[in-house]
Specification:
- It comes from Folsomia candida (Springtail).
- The radius of gyration is 50 Å and the shape is extended.
- It has a three-stranded antiparallel sheet, covered by helices on one side.
- The longest helix is centred in the C-terminal third of the chain and has 46 residues.
- The protein has 1281 residues and is α+β, with helices and mostly antiparallel strands.
- The N terminus and C terminus are likely disordered.
- A hairpin with a 6-residue loop joins strand 2 and strand 3.
- The chain is 44% helix and 19% strand.
- The chain contains 46 helices and 45 strands.
Amino acid sequence: MDPGPSSSVLTDFREARPHDQPQYDEAFPALPPNPSGPNSGPTSGLSSPGANNKWSQKMRIGSNTVTSVFHIPFEERSDRGHGERFGEMDALKACGEIIKQSGAHIELSSSSRDQSLTFLVTGKQSSVVEAKREILQRFQTQAQKQINIPKEHHRFILGKQGQKLNELEKTTATKISIPRPNDDSNMITIVGPKEGIEKAEHEIRWISDEQSKQASERISVPKKFHPFILGPFGEKVGSLIAVTGARINIPPVSVMNDEISVVGEKEGVAKAVQAIKNDLEVFKKYVTVSVEVRKTQHKYIIGKQRITINEILRETGVSVEIPPLESPSETISLHGPAEILGSALTVVYEKANSIITRTVDAPAWVHKHVIGKKGCNIQKITSSYPRAHVEIMDSQNQIVIEGPPEDVEPVTLQLQECVKNLIDNMSFKDISVDPKYYKHIIGKNGTNINRLKDDTGVIISVQDAQSSGQMANIHLEGTRVGVEQASKHILDQVNKLESEKEKDLIIEHRFHGNLIGAKGAGIREIREKFNQVQINFPTPDERRDVVTVRGPKDDVDKCCSYMTKLYKEMVENSFQLKVPIFPQCYRLVVGKGGANIRKIREETNTRFDLPPLAEGKSKTEAEIIVITGRKENCEAARDRLLSLQNSVADVVEIDVMIPSKFHNSLIGVGGKVIQSISDDCGGVHIKFPDSKTKSDRVQVMGPKDMVEKAKNILVDLSKDKEISGHVEILIAKPQHHKFLIGKSGANIKKIRESTNARIVFPGSSEGNQEAITIIGKKENVANAKQQLMDIIKDLEKTVESEMTVDPQYHRHFVLRRGEILRQIADEFGGVSVSFPKVGSNSSKVIIKGPPECVDAAKQRISSIADDLSKRVNIDVVIEQKHHRTIMGSQGSKVKQIQSDHNVDIKFPERPDDHDEEQHIPEQNGDGARASDIIRVSGRPENCEAAKNALLEQVPIIIEVDIPFKMHRHVIGQKGKDVRELMKIHDVHIQVPAPPKQDEQGQQDRPPSDTIKILGSPKNCAAAKEALLNLKEDLEGMERDREARSFIVRVQVDPEFHPKIIGKQGAVIGKIRDQFNVNIQLPRRDSEEQDVIVITGYEADANNAKEEILGIVNELVQREKFREEVEIDHRVHSRIIGQRGKTVRQIMKDFNVDIRFPRSESGNPNLVVISGGEQDKVYDARDHLLNMEEEYIQDVTENEYMQKYLKKDSDQNQGNHKQKQSNGFVVKGAPWNAPDTQSTVDFPTFGNGLASAETEPMPVAAAPVAPAPRPLNSAWGARKHF
């Protein structure tokens, strides 16, 4: 039996030798990427049932008010380069987004024959227009065109608030970009489908022609003659434009308009108009023939991009008029000379009958089965007939087949047979279900519904209800048996749910964990006890208190009662008390190993939270023990603790008599005052009586000395309160308060100074608005109260006074429901002001109230009337484009001007579209436009001041030159700094954009240094000054940066570098901090190993250099005598000792420095000893040689034994390898362990020791030294320098 190619490969791998082992990437090659993605699949439309299995997606039901159908050929599809398979998921996703955005219902059909797209959009008129625009932008190739329109015509294209432009973009499904007013460009850019661009261009040129100052004429030419003027493919009108130089705007086919506009130079316009009129006389002799052609055949007469219809015009000279796609008419009209209409008609019929259409009735629910998985069924039918186009019409329950007759007929027969088989063998059913049961039918993440699908093989679609409380359908599709099973299962589940009950329990979120228990033990016990109910807790992130219980009614009630009982017990057991314990008694109260606390806890059934025994805590801070449990148990445990504390310490309890009226002030807000007293007195317990008892007894308990200290503090505070804390309440009407206070607080300030009492008026949020509180010494409070009562008596004397006000000003006082009169009443003690009835012509005004209030109100009314009598109106002419800037955000600036100068300011209305189109500005006598005039009303001097304030707000543009390299500092991170600058100075700052670079790196323009500031002159000047200050700061920073970049180089022998660095960089770090410099030592691969680079200020760098040279000189003096000695490198590690402990002790004993060779050193045995005294250097050398002689014998014996043991182990491993096979081995696999014998993965460290199997060093390169033999460590000896 042939094992197959995979078996042979495996056999080869198993028999391969180590040097033939395959690589991991060869044995397990990566899988090829799936270009279609995991979710690709066919579909015939967006609304087909089962098209999307995500239960969270909701179906949208349109209003079916308007229906629009349009077609996108393959060559115009924007995604034609991304594959041509049936049913792209990207298209469905895009349609879903458009549905959510517009609210319209969209059905998509993709042709398997010519890869074109057909869309059916249903919904409200506005929704359909919006959806169509979005579809064309996303699915149709977006062309772009720029047209030159004079700058002065742009505002007419925009319309009022851009409404005209928005409407034009919606109707043409394009995006139109118009340059900003400060941009000098005249080019308008149109982006969108070709047909939409044509429509938009026509409308824009039409608007421009209307406003053009050049010669413009319009000719009414019947729509049927337009193709003759245009010519085949626009050739005729193009030649006429070339000859005359005039612009000829002919409405496109989709625009039902007979007028043709001609714009240009007068002479050219006249020639063009005359030529069109001459042609029109000829066209009037043409005749028209109408024929009936099926609607489905019209598109074949038109052709792609109207190519066919233009070819007919070129070949026959006859124009073919096709009714619009939206029209139900099937009549086609031919216009032209009578003698050639016959041949043209023959050509039209040939084009129309080259394609036929057949329909197959098929319910919408079978469409996806006809298509098959990934379009396999439909492709199987149409693969032999590539010219047949099959279109699935879900909304009409039909399948439409188009193409040549020889291809359409067999495809139609196969589809009819396929539909019949599906209807005979499959079924569907709709079940009405209350939407509130959906979550139970679907299950968490769709588990229940997916399980039912797998069991029955049925497609299940859950539809949303159109309104709350309304029944919705669950749609089932599949085999008859499967549909019946799924239907029975769902109905049984619904019946069960209807007989169940759902109840919500309110349980605090903090107790949910206690109910659930450790690892769910608690809730598991409840569910076992009530096994018919479902208990759902909110997630920890939700922080809700609602627990839902669902199941049979009786079981739910019992479960809820049980859980409520548990909850009440938890609440009762969660009462907490905090007991402060004196720090000197804490250990004795707790007991040895917590014995006392444990005993109290067991006897009282409570829980204790003990504070840690912190060593650093002050001896005067009390230790707080928290007791948790039932209230009565906690109180019993507290008493036990306090009793225990009293028994182990010198604790006394005394009573201090303090008047109850001072208790609140002594306690302080939130108990802060009394807590501070307790803390200052070693944590003594201070207990105030309940406020309801009105008792003066305050209990103080604690150590005797601390209790006495707390008593003295409380008594002293009480005396102070008694002396200066006398309080009395005075009742006065709220409207009198402002007169008691006086202007700018003058009256109340005078009373406070004379009596030295504190007077507090009620705040706006207080309940009792009449109570005035007076605080101070008793005699001072009485004096202040008497003065206030005298003022109140005068205010309560009500008088009635009359005054005359010119009737022409009465209307001003009663406007806006008497707003001014209400302000006067509020301001002057609630006075009553009565004006005569309208039409009485009386000037008498009656005022009632306290005398002072009446007099003040009369003065105020007289002042207002005087202002009205002297009121004038002045006009301030400011261009309307600046009005919005002058008004400010929500009119803040103009409101401030009105308030500051007591004037009324009225801005003109913006001109409407009609005024703009007429372009005839309304002017006053001075020649100013009405839309530029701002009217200011008030006193003459106030109006002049307000006028100047308005003119000061007129924005100007000033320029500031800031070097381009500083612009990024002006802008700041993500524009933060420039926005802050604009906010502070209320201006707009425009920073020039950096120049663009082409592919060769060439800039399109030189960088600009000019920054523009737009705003009022005052604000612009302030912003300019701020920018110039910033420029100076940046220049100063640049100069400072250059000064800090001074470089000094110093040559130091590399052997001194470690000493200059110091331990963990301590020495070099100190130099850097002291002189504020950067010190860079050479890298190992640097050519100049002895050069240290110092960067900083010149003086600091030179000082740092002197400091380093001083260290070097000191090191040279310390290492004046130097001795080199060869010591076998195998004993270096023993001399160095663990972490260099041994060698450091040697250096300390002999006051020398010992350096061992580096790994790259030529002689691994050479050790250098240096020091300031020659005798000590020699003594250290002798000591090292003695140590070498002591250690070398042990090392040699150890190596000899290791070599002997290694031979035996190598032989045993060789025998073992012969018996055991390595199996299937792959190199580079992630499961392979690292090879510790590899010198590549594990290179040799230290003094360069290698294993005995390494290749020997060439004789010429090897130093004279004993042959290296391995030590116990694989890494060699540790070196310390």
